[in-house]
Input
Amino acid sequence: MSKNFYITTPIYYVNDKPHIGHAYTTILADALNRFYQINGYDTFFLTGLDEHGQKVQEAAKKKNIEPLEQCDEMVPEFKNLWEKLHISHNDFIRTTETRHVSIVQDILTKVFNKEDIYKGEYEGLYSVSEERFITDKEAETGNFRDIKKIKEKNYFFRMSKYQNKLIKYIESNPNFIQPEHRKNEIIGFLRKPLNDLCISRPKSRLSWGIELPFDKDYVTYVWFDALINYLTGIGFKKDKKLFEKYWPASYQLIGKDILTTHAIYWPTMLMSLEIELPKTIFAHGWWLISESKMSKSIGNVIDPMELINEYGADPVRYYLMREMVLGQDSNFTFESFKSRYNSDLANDFGNLLSRVSTLMKKNFEGKIPLPNKMSKMEKEIQLESKNLIENVKGQVKSMRINEAIEHIMQFIRGINKYLEVSAPWKMVKVDKEIAGTVLFTAGEALRISALLLEPIMPNRTLELLEAFDAKGTSLSWGGLVPGATLKDHDPLFPRLK
Output
């Protein structure tokens, strides 16, 4: 079995600043990337920006600047946020980069020469907001804004040619589109006649894009351009060794609003190119604000940078990963954020560290005590930790991240109860060896919990591991070194008022 792991986020549009939805997808990718790393996988994590298309051109026009200037302005907004969130990506791609433009044009030429691209005329409805042609039925849903009727000559990709092949592929590869209800949605869509995909825009209407290599009067449709980044980012046609190592992608994470482009456009493009399809396209839900979809027009967009500056990156990462059931929508409120922070992070996790380290400093000269005289409880905790590790691995691989986190927190709560029952602050006066064993057990449980939570909270968990002089230790029981000196540390999660 291959121990290589390639994960991607969608590349984010640069018409505006990043919001909590962008942050969520990228944190999820980062957490999965870190989980697979600690399980011995050689990983590659790609994210980046989608910089062509009508919305970018219009955003630039409003500011009276060139489209590339608009893109350059937005790049630091995303890069700074990823740095603040401790995102550990391997590459950050921009679709205006020469390496990407050349690959897009090479692919267009190949598909054109294969006669999978042809010139035709379109007359119908066009959604400016979505930058694509839509059907009358789609227009009636009310999900599309800025609808115009357009008649123009364009180039089309023979997407319909691969319709039946794609249906068969999805049916024979049940993990290709996840979760299950999204797969069923796509299958239902594909049971109806599939139109060919318009993959060009005349320069007379849109100049900001990659020029078609076979017709200088047209630029490439933004989605045909953007999707190719997943190939460009791992060296397609440039670095054969890198590409063959990581492709096909293990997970391509997307929001449910771009499911069609990724589950229909993208695989049919790959089929035309005779390139293996990604293993899993996973569509997560939306973050709602007080049960409503985020919208700039109604002023309910959450700025992730403000959250980080107020509460820190790790609590933000924890909340977003803990609260959303993957595949479903989730509701963000400041009340639930503070409640989750205080209950899980301050009361359970952070408080356990404070209790254990304080007792070690007070009764064992600030050193990790030697475990001895293990009782039934200590043996049960050791076994429970082993089971926890395996369960968390399974839950992560099944994309049940919130369940994995809750499982870890239940273990931590159990350790807090174990301390209450064992009362080492009392036992130390009667039998110091037993008290030392209790504290070692609690500390070791904390160490393993921190390692399991590190993909979610890479900063604060590192502080805990450094406090125990246990940085770089394994998940196997016994990573704490008796006699090691505890390091001073600030409270991990000061309680919020």
In short: Residues 178 and 282 are 5 Å apart (CA to CA). The longest helix spans residues 334-363. Residues 338-467 form a domain with the Isoleucyl-tRNA Synthetase; Domain 1 fold (CATH 1.10.730.10). The mean pLDDT is 94.
